[in-house]
């Protein structure tokens, strides 16, 4: 099964080797038929601490690295 790849914006890089990425998703509401935006935050592994707040990054699914980290950051 292929690994999922999501793209989003870095909202925090305060932890060592970890970034928090906010991924926005748009979909049509089933009853109201309006476009709704939802966002979710993912903790991703950033081994070289190269990403800063506001950067656009892609994250890829991986084996668990820690309690919260199940994603690895890729350059976008």
Descriptive notes:
The chain is mostly beta strands and 76 residues long. It has one domain: Nucleic acid-binding proteins (OB fold (Dihydrolipoamide Acetyltransferase, E2P)), CATH 2.40.50.140. The chain is 0% helix and 54% strand. The chain is globular and about 45 Å long. The model has no long low-confidence stretch (mean pLDDT 95).
Low-pLDDT segments: none
Q: Kindly identify the CATH topology.
A: OB fold (Dihydrolipoamide Acetyltransferase, E2P)
Question: Which H/E pattern describes the elements?
Answer: EEEEE
End-to-end Cα distance: 23 Å
Helix fraction by DSSP (H/I, runs of at least 4): under 10%
Shape annotation? globular
Number of strands: 5
The portion of residues forming beta strands comes to over 45%
Question: What's the overall average pLDDT, rounded?
Answer: 95
Architecture in CATH?
Beta Barrel
CATH superfamily: Nucleic acid-binding proteins
CATH class: Mainly Beta
Number of DSSP helices? 0
Structural class: mainly beta
C-alpha-based Rg, rounded? 14 Å
Summarize the biggest pleated sheet: 5 strands, mixed, barrel
Widest sheet: strand ordering? 1-2-3-5-4
The tally of domains stands at 1
